[in-house]
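Continuing the batch. This is chain 6 of the set; chains 1 through 5 are on the previous pages. Same settings as before, nothing changed between runs. Recording input and output for traceability.
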Amino acid sequence: MLLPAGWPEILVWGITIAFFIVASIGTKLIADSLMSSDFIDNRKGKLIGGIILVVFFWLIMSMPTNTHTFFYNDKIGSVISKDIETTNKYLQQVVDLGTSSSMVLDEEGKQMKDAVEEQRRHIVAQFNGDEAPFKRGNGKEIGKHLENINKILNSSIQQDPRYNSKEPSIINGYQVEINKALAHALRTHTITEQSVQAAIKQKTRLSALNDSIQNHLAMSNLSEDEIRQCEKELKDGYNIIATNKTFIQFDKNSDDEEIYTQENAETRTKRMSSVIDVFFVDFLKGKYPASFWYYVILSVLVDIAAFIFFDIAFMKQDD
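Output for chain 6:
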C-alpha cells in the first residue's frame, strides 16, 4: 500500500520474503550466540549483528506491517462506513445552508453587511430629515454615506444630481443600487450554487457506495478496488467541505475540523492504509484502545512461530 503504484506484485512478494529471511537470519544468529556451547568465532559480534537485523527488519518493518494487516482487514469496513457517514453529514450542512431562504454569510461577510446596513440607515434617516441637520431630501450628508458604502463594497454608487429633492424615487433608487452592490460583494462570502450542487452530487455518490460496501461486508468480499474508489469519492467530499469550512458547524467533541480543513486533507479511509500513520503515529500516541494490542500480540506470535521453524530447519541442516 505504501509503495508507488505500478510496482509488480511479484517484486513486492520478493521484498517481503527477503525481509523475512534477513530477520530470521538475525534470530538464528542470536540463538546460536546465546545457546550454543561450542566455540563460535566472534560470538559477541554475531549477537549484536543478529539483534540489529531483528530490530530493523522485524521490529521496525515486519512486525508493524503484519500488525497493520490484521488491524486493517478487521477494521477498514467500519472506518469507511463511518467516514462516509461523517462526510455526508457535513455535505448536508452545505446543502441546507446553501438553499436556506436567508443568506448565510461568513464572518467577513457579516461584518461587511452590518457596516453597509448602518450606512443605509443613515441615508434613509437623512432623506427623511430624522438626523442632523434635520432637513428632508437628497442632501450632502447622503453623499458622504454613499462614499462610505463604496469603500466597503468597492462599488461606484453615485449620488443623484437632484440635490435637496424630496422625490421618493431618489431614495428608492439608492436602495436598489445598494442592494445590487451588496449582493455582488457578498458572492464570495456565502455558499455558492456550484458548491450546493457539488455537495448534492457527492452525497449521492457516497450513499450509493456505502450501500454497495455494506453488501460486500455482509458477504466478506470487500475488494481493494472498491476501497480505492471510496477513497477518491471521499477525497472529493473533503474538498467540498474544506471549501465551505467557514459555514460548517463541526462537532466540538471530535477532531473533524482539523481533519477536514487541513491543507491537502487526508481522508480517514486513506490514512488507514498507511502502516506508518496507523502504527507509528496513531497507535503510539494512544489514539486506539487497548484492544489494538491484540493485533500486536497476534502478529508477534505468528512471526515468532515462523522464526522458530526457520531456526529449526537450519539446525537440522547443520546437523
